[in-house]
Amino acid sequence: MTPPLPARTRVAPSPTGDPHVGTAYQAIFDLACARQTGGQFVLRIEDTDQARQVEGSEQQIYDTLAWLGLSPDESPEVGGPAGPYRQSERLPEYAAVAQQLLDAGHAYHCWCTPERLADLRKQQEASKQADTGYDRRCYGLTRDERAKLPGFSEKPVVRMLVPDDPPLTFTDLIRGEVACPRPDDQVILKADGFPTYHLAVVVDDHLMGITHTVRGEEWISSTPKHLLIYRWLGWDLPFFVHMPLLRNADKSKIAKRKNPAARLMWFRENGYLPEALVNFLSLLAYPPVHEGSDIQSFDELVASFDWGKFSTTGPVVDLGKLDWLNGAYIRALTDDELGARIVAYWDEVGQPVDAVEARRVVTQAAPIIKERLTTLRDAYPMVDFLLVDDDLLVIEDDAREALPEQTPQILAAAIKALGALPGDGFTAETAEAALRASLVDGLGLKPRVAFNPVRTAISGRKVSPPLFESMAILGQARTLARLQSLK
Fold first, then answer.
1. Could you read off the pLDDT of 21-44 as tens digits, one per residue?
2. CA distance 22 to 242
3. Cα separation of 300 and 287, whole Å?
4. What is the average pLDDT value for the chain, to the nearest integer?
5. Which of 388, 410, 398, 414 has the alpha carbon at shortest distance from 462?
6. Is the model's pLDDT at 97 over the cut of 60?
7. Coil, helix or strand for 261?
8. Is the N end or the C end of the chain the one with fewer CB atoms within 10 Å?
9. pTM to 2 decimals?
10. Which residues contact 280 (CB under 8 A, 6 or more apart)?
């Protein structure tokens, strides 16, 4: 059951490249929990790993969440009462808490060099000892005492001092009672003054009033470290939620280096609708709101939201299902809406089209391409022949090779028949009737043969969207110009 309180949830991505799809996956449920309980959804930027930061990544996080309709109530961009919301701007808070733990004897300085720690790990692996982790070489020593020993670094880190009886179980809103392995003396403050995740997540969640610490299941084993810090500081615990990890078809963890769909930007670049993607991601770990139907809005998810309904099995990201959902959302759009979405997508990806003319063309073409679209990206190859200047239309080789020997007579008859139509009466229906009368009845040709040259002249292809509707979109003058050009 969802705890009966106004929830303050947060998502905390790192600006280390294109946003991960997991950021949106978590944000959906963070926001749903906050909205259902009348709380707030916070975006925090975890930028303590300065070496891995990528310029522009933070802005991409803001932009993609806004595109998905998952905008936070508080963030570095919009501000809020619990700021600052970038960890790099919160170093004094971390330093103060680390000092508090040092003063209370719950933490100690460690001067070991990276080389000494690497050698320690190798020795432990070689001996196959059960207890691994830091060996407390520096515990209880002053700086001068430690400096006399090998592997000394001038700049110490701060390590937590794990007691003999650390808490090894906790309650998870999805998983119930969870058991964890014993933690080691984790570094909580690095030599450069930046915190590790283990200190920062506790300090930030507490000071920002976060009620639900939601994160991936890979952090389950680290939770005892966080429980200790909460206990030492006398702070109330949040509710813990460890979501199942998104996986590839081979059940491996989805990662940007192996799967382009791990990049949140990939979905936008490839023409998926944001509402379809939100619907898809919400279904990966949560049952459908409507029995027997996978189509659901975010508002419907909010109304039904309950942490207890989650599956704990790592869901496979099945793009086939997303394609089906996206097609369903596209077909639910009006022609005007679809035209606007397509043109906006072309603008985003840098498709060189005249926006006004493109909007007219794709709105009129929507009825004849809508059923064929899986993503917005599919639209341009279907309608590009309608957008190109008539004298720049390219006739594809296979289409030219398939032209029947009667092509000159067919084109001449088609031009005469279509040219006789009144300009204000040139529609798909009147064009079809005129061509059937002239080519099928008049020349005695089968429709497949009769319309082949006309289709090639209009589209440059053997296969195209419905011919007569395409002619109506082009209009009488452009249709005749293309027929004349092939002739």
1. 999 999 999 999 999 999 999 999
2. 13
3. 12
4. 95
5. 398
6. yes
7. helix
8. N
9. 0.92
10. 321, 322, 325, 326
Separation in Å, CA 437 to CA 410, 420, 428, 449, 452: 12, 13, 14, 14, 16
Helix axes 335-349, 355-369, angle to 10 degrees: 130
User: What confidence tens digit (pLDDT) does each residue in 119-145 have?
Assistant: 999 998 888 776 778 999 999 999 999
CA angle 39, 45, 46 (to 5 degrees): 120
Angle ∠(398,358,364) on CA atoms, nearest 5: 85
Tell me the C-alpha to C-alpha distance, in Å, between residue 436 and each of 416, 431, 485. Answer: 13, 9, 21
Tell me what percent of the chain is helix, strand and coil, each rounded to the nearest 5.
50, 10, 35
Contacts of 270 (CB under 8 A, 6+ apart): 375, 377
Gap between the Cα atoms of 350 and 331, Å rounded: 24
Contact 76, 84 (CB under 8 A): yes
Residue-wise pLDDT tens digits, 402-440: 999 999 999 999 999 999 999 889 999 999 999 999 999
Q: Is 148 tagged catalytic?
A: no
Catalytic-labelled residue, pool 190, 256, 321, 462: 256
Q: Residue 84: which of 29, 42, 35, 33 has the closest Cα?
A: 42
